[in-house]
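Fold it.
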Amino acid sequence: MIKDQEKRNPAVSQPKGVEAVDRAILILRSFDMHSGKLTLAQIAERTGFYKSTILRLVASLEREGFIVRTQDKSYSLGPELLRLGSLYQRSLKLEEYIRPALKRLLQATGESASFFIRSGEGRSCLFREDSSHTVRDHVVEGETLVLKQGAAGHVLVDYALQLGQDSATVAKGTLPRFSFGERVPDVAASAVPVFGLQHSSTVLIGALTLSGPKSRFTPELCEMMGPHLLREAKALSDILGARITWVD
């Protein structure tokens, strides 16, 4: 076992795969939306690895385009990740179905519409259509947020239990899920699950979400959002092959 991992990062002291790959992935994951550029010292602090270990791994990542070195000798994520992300989106072919649904939700409600998927212990915004309002919540495509906060997070956790079943029953009366100020104090959101079919099983694909300032999420707007969200979620689930019975 690598000594610096055992001493400084016990959580990864027993990797199940290839150690070098596991450590390289941890380096890539040390970057986030608020830290697009990191120094060697910052990477060391976030990963718990010695600088000598990081330099060896970064050399390989840099050579393959996963990391780039900036003029001030910091590091940022490289273009190869963008290429792979684009391939991932195209391979799923989700965008051609979900993007129009988000645009319809935005047009109907005036609030920002997003599609979130679960990403490890977080949730990532895969697609987003921003409101034209000057005051709105700010989330960008590709951003990863806390999983267990916010309406979309609750949907992704609760409806993941549908995974692996041939079919599923969803009670419309419990939807959409709402959150008020959970992740950001002044932001509210509503969300519904979208299902699909994988290997002959109905699975949760993601969460359709409408979000904006709490001040605009009046009881009237919240009531109006529900039918729009449910209609789009049902249509998407049908297109994606899910065997869902939506009950009142």
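Residues 178 and 190 are 4 Å apart (CA to CA).
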